[in-house]
Amino acid sequence: MDMDDIVNKLGKLPPGLVKVIEKYINKIPSVQKEIDRQTDEIMKDIAEDLRPYKEDFSSFTEIPAEGKSREEILKEMEGMALQERDKWKDGLVSGTVYHGDEEHIDFLNKVYAMNSQTNPLHSDVFPSISKFEAEIISMTANMLGAKNANSEVCGSVSSGGTESILLAMKTYRDRAKAEKGITNPEMVVPVTAHAAFNKASEYFNIKLRAIPADENYQVDLKKLKHQINSNTIVIVGSAPTFPHGVVDPISALSDIALKYKVGLHVDACLGGFILPWVKKLDYDVPEFDFSLPGVTSMSADTHKYGFAAKGTSVVLYRNPALRRYQYFTITDWPGGLYFSPTFAGSRPGALSAACWATLVTMGEQGYMEVAKSIMDAAVTIQKGIEGISDLRILGKPFWNIAFTSDNFDIYQLMDFLTSKGWTLNGLHKPSCVHICLTKRHTQAGVAQKFVDDLKEGVEFVKANPNTEGGLAPVYGLAATLPLRGTISQMLKKYMDTIYKV
Ligand SMILES: *Cc1c(COP(=O)(O)O)cnc(C)c1O
Fold first, then answer.
1. DSSP states of 389-450 as a string?
2. Digit-coded pLDDT (tens) for 362-399
3. Residues 333, 282: contact at Cβ < 8 Å?
């Protein structure tokens, strides 16, 4: 029996049974040893790919006895940065770097340098940073419908989308306990929502009820309603989703949230700073923000389409009473009266300064211009894919476009595109590939090159269905292998590998 047979046979069993079988076979020492041996083998190859600079640059396992010269280190680091810059600068990478123009980066760096010593934990020493953060929150709230919501909308600046989501989920958990006495909290979350919700479920002991998507890759509303009960603290929708770039039916979710008296978090990490402008450009964008009365919190990433440096995001709440459950205070600590609004204690104020400076220098006009050029590129790519009969777009996306094929292994097409220099995202359940368009893809010829490479790739894969050497088999296995615990072990080994010097 080969691997395909095993996968096939296991795939036909109920997932619960597979879990039990897996637990049992993993307890057999020889099986565990064999899995370890094979994954260690794979990790050896990966370890080399993860450290491409071993020979060219110095590496340290201990603090050097004598400090290196600053010039030497700057030169080394510049060498690495330049090598990596080629990867994203020309627009061949999905997502990742959302603006990336040189003048913009220079400006961010200047603002960062000016503020590199600041820390909003010490709001008395650095009142400028508190001002920047308050204004970032206000600008974000008013962009996302606060004006239509009696303007009680408030929030916090966090370190990224994941922190914004974790904060919101903790907030609902603590509110539900205080106001409704809920001690077994549950969240109702579409499977297409970001993994950060699963992380929140693990970290904060909130049971996650996963809701499948319908044929449009939007959350199935009927199934969602069925999962709401007296322990439900929040329901979730995305605007848009990370995998397929599709906006969930937020207006219907808002009605459901009001009817069942539960919170509604709209994850606009990806869309918060572009969807409002795409709507203004007259694309068919439904309501998705605080203008809908059931929306009680949102996350919007300044470090994605807000074009700030990496490390900031905004979490918003409908009113300060809700936000208060996010705050931490301690009044009898020997270190004095202590409070902090988010997970971190000390925080990089320079990132908030750079974020504020980005919002006010971009302006609505600047954001509109970028949004227009991204959507133009998206239209070129969507039309291009629609013109290739072997490919199919999943759902109704805007600028983050997932596609698959009913005629061949889509991961083989991804391998072909990788060979052409593209770095795309391989997704699963169902198997597909997506490209998330950024300002990098608005450079002349990039969108058309993508369409041309797709066409060439489709012909290649059809003519050479058994091409070897790519990652397609790995993706295929990772997507379909029913032994999820084994895959999870592999991912943990991968993280160990990342931390190896
Ligand atoms: C990127 C993203 C997040 C998480 O953001 P991080 O900044 O990577 O933590 C959450 N939701 C969606 C839809 C996203 O695209």
1. TT-EE-S--SSEEEEE-SSS-HHHHHHHHHHTT-B-EEETTTTEEEEE--GGGGSTTHHHHH
2. 999 999 999 999 999 999 999 999 999 999 999 999 99
3. no
Complete DSSP assignment for 104-132? HHHHHHHHHHHHTT--TT-TTT-HHHHHH
pTM of full prediction above 0.85:
yes
- For residue 26, which of 484, 496, 497 has the smallest C-alpha distance? 484
Quote the ligand 1 centre to 78 CA distance (angstroms): 28
Fold of the CATH domain 114-359 = Aspartate Aminotransferase; domain 2 (3.40.640)
Coil, strand or helix: which one is 25?
A: helix
Domain ranges of the chain: 3-50+477-498, 114-359
Q: What is the pLDDT of residues 216-271, one digit of tens each?
A: 999 999 999 999 999 999 999 999 999 999 999 999 999 999 999 999 999 999 99
Q: Is 242 in the pocket of ligand 1 (CB under 6 A)?
A: yes
Nearest to 220 by CA among 212, 228, 209, 232: 212
Cα 336-337-343 angle, rounded to 5 deg: 110
CA–centroid distance, residue 270 to ligand 1 (Å): 6
Rounded CA gap, 1 and 193, in Å? 37
The closest alpha carbon to 392, from 374, 410, 380, 377, belongs to 410
CA–CA dist 271, 306 (Å, integer): 10
Question: Does the CB atom of residue 238 touch ligand 1 within 6 A?
Answer: yes
Three-state SS for 154-209 is EEEEECCHHHHHHHHHHHHHHHHHHHHCCCCCEEEEECCCCCHHHHHHHHHCCEEE
**What is the SS3 assignment for 264-292?**
EEEEECCCCCCHHHHHHCCCCCCCCCCCC
Lowest mean pLDDT, pick from 21-35, 260-274, 346-360, 458-472? 21-35
Q: Is the CB of 196 under 6 A from ligand 1?
A: yes
Tell the residue number behind the tokens 């698959």, with chain if given.
404
The closest residue, in CA terms, to atom 8 on ligand 1 is: 161
